[in-house]
Amino acid sequence: MATQNLPTPNATSSTLGQSATQFLLTLSPDERLKCQQEIYRFVRWYGEGRRIGELSIPEVANYAEQITSSTTEITEKLASIKAFLVYNYKQGLTKTNLSIHLKTKKTPLKLHARPARLRRKEAILTAKGRASLEAELAALKNERPLIAEELQKAAADKDFRENAPLEAAREHQGQLEARIRELEAILKAAKDMEEKQASNYEINIGDTVLLCELTSNEEVRYTLVDAREANPLDGKISTASPVGQALLGRNKGDKIEVRVPAGVITYEIKDILHK
């Protein structure tokens, strides 16, 4: 088979679109078919004409938030993009290996306090969200005796000057009690979503929406939730996110525009599953 002559990649002139084509041609037909959709989705997000050398670490680090699917599917999709980013680095098209910065954001540790802006804002919880927070609160309260035991054991060491276990136990206890207080305050002040009078047609918090990206005809599914319940791995996005804000109050058949690094992506609302 004759090899195809391809232009040599250039760090100062290669665009994302050109680099994607170069990369896909290095793959076997099966591998190409498997990952080209996700590669082109990545390219569309930042712009086909965007210089590959202009991609920044923060942009790549935040890309995973745009993918909503099962954990396994997200891992597979990110693997394709990581391979693409590694290719660009090896070709000298990027100064650093951007693939190491592409990862899903883990759910914050349970004991970490939420930002002040979220603590002050009244939460609107779905029934599932309230149950989840109540379960977390009960689990944390059950940890209290264990931490008390840790403190007691650590304090038995009379050399307090370098008693790292004691300091760690105290810090753990402080985080635990802070999170318990936060959860109690959220649950006390939060309103249940069912109490809100929502239209039978308009999109509201708790609804699941099927969208179609008009450029690629790719479909994505989102569930709109309060910021405290947001979890991209489960397809749950905050109503405060760009997509969430664009969807609230809209109806089936409407078209929405969401600003991304490449410009604007247009979606059509194909279906709405009301809570």
Fold and architecture overview:
The protein has 275 residues and is of the alpha/beta class. It has three domains: 16-101; 116-195, Orthogonal Bundle (Helix Hairpins), CATH 1.10.287.180; 208-273, Chitinase A, domain 3. Helix content is 44%, strand content 14%. The protein has a five-stranded mixed beta sheet. A two-stranded parallel sheet has the order 1-2. β6 (255-260) and β7 (263-273) form a beta hairpin. α2 crosses α4.
Task: Outline the fold blueprint.
Blueprint lengths: L15 H10 L3 H18 L10 H6 L8 H20 L25 H5 L3 E2 L1 H29 L8 H26 L1 E2 L15 E6 L4 E8 L10 E3 L3 H6 L7 E6 L2 E11 L2
Parallel strand pairs: 1-2, 4-5
Antiparallel strand pairs: 3-4, 3-7, 6-7
Helix pairs in contact: 1-2, 2-4, 6-7
**Percent helix:** 40-55%
State the shape.
flat
The number of E-state strands comes to: 7
* Count of discrete structural domains: 3
Over all CA atoms, what is the radius of gyration?
A: 24 Å
Total helix count? 8
- Tell me the strand percentage band: 5-15%
**Average pLDDT number:** 77
Largest sheet: 5 strands, mixed
Q: Structural class per helix/strand content?
A: alpha/beta
Indicate the low-confidence ranges by residue numbers.
106-120, 195-199
Distance between the termini: 56 Å
Order of H and E elements: HHHHHEHHEEEEHEE
Task: Going across the biggest sheet, name each strand in turn.
Answer: 5-4-3-7-6
Task: Give a quick summary of the entry.
The protein has 275 residues and is of the alpha/beta class. Helix content is 44%, strand content 14%.
